[in-house]
Specification:
heterodimer, A: mainly beta, six-stranded mixed β-sheet, globular, B: mainly beta, five-stranded antiparallel β-sheet
């Protein structure tokens, strides 16, 4: 079936502008994650959604970052007043919840490469 | 909160040799430990995972071991090939039937020289 998709694949913006990144999870996956990966660096946790529970926002680096998810469908990550240090690849992953403590493994989308000039 | 440390940051081996990457985690409640391989410019791909109710898992040339007492786990790649060259990430989460937050190590850049 279709995997996790993200759009746009590349985004170039000017400092101070707002950007919106989109993630379409695998159908039926109730858990959704956003990560930031700067060039040559690791995966920095941003936010985690699970079904209708309150999201875990503990990784958002500032109040310029926000994310939404409606139900178990698409999620959007919004960065307001972008700064040059926001330049990175933003990765989304989704995961199937399972009974008996055996949720599925997370699968990543291709990412959105954000460049802030 | 959960913290995951990964070593080494770079690893160079000769083709055919074994490679070992080690990770430690801080939260004793963590019970799920996946490993991802990321090739240049591509998304991370899951290669193997282990749950806390087992101490070792193998899949062909790849194995993962878990020591819950010491809170560390390791990836072992045997008979390395040039196509194994990539960045490898470990991760840890408190896994329940909802999934759980997943925290990654800093990554290990593996280079396999022919």
């Amino acid at each position: 079936g279709a995997g996790v998709s993200q759009s746009p694949s590349n985004k170039v913006t000017e400092k101070g502008k707002d950007v919106e990144l989109r993630c379409d999870p695998i159908s039926g996956h109730t858990a959704l994650y956003w990560y930031r990966q700067r060039l040559g660096q690791g995966l920095e946790f941003l936010i985690y959604f699970q079904g209708n529970s309150a999201p875990d926002k503990s990784g958002l680096p500032s109040d310029r970052f926000s994310a939404e998810r409606t139900g178990e469908s698409v999620s959007t990550l919004t960065i307001q007043r972008t700064q040059q240090e926001d330049s990175a690849v933003y990765l989304c992953a989704s995961r199937l919840a399972g009974g008996g403590g055996r949720a599925g493994s997370p699968f990543f989308g291709p990412g959105t490469r954000l460049t802030v000039l | 909160g959960e913290n995951v440390e990964q070593h080494p940051s770079t690893l160079s081996v000769q083709e055919g040799d074994s490679a070992v990457i080690k990770c430690t985690y801080s939260d004793s409640a963590s019970n799920y430990f996946p490993w991802y391989k990321q090739e240049l410019g591509k998304r991370p791909q899951l290669i193997i995972d282990i749950r806390s109710n087992v101490g070792e898992k193998k899949d062909q040339r790849i194995a993962v071991t878990l020591n819950k007492t010491a809170k560390h786990f390791s990836l072992h790649i045997t008979e390395t090939q040039p196509e194994d060259s990539a960045v490898y990430f470990c991760a840890a989460s408190i896994k329940n039937n909802q999934g759980g937050k997943l925290i990654f190590g800093q990554g290990t850049e593996l280079s396999v020289k022919p």
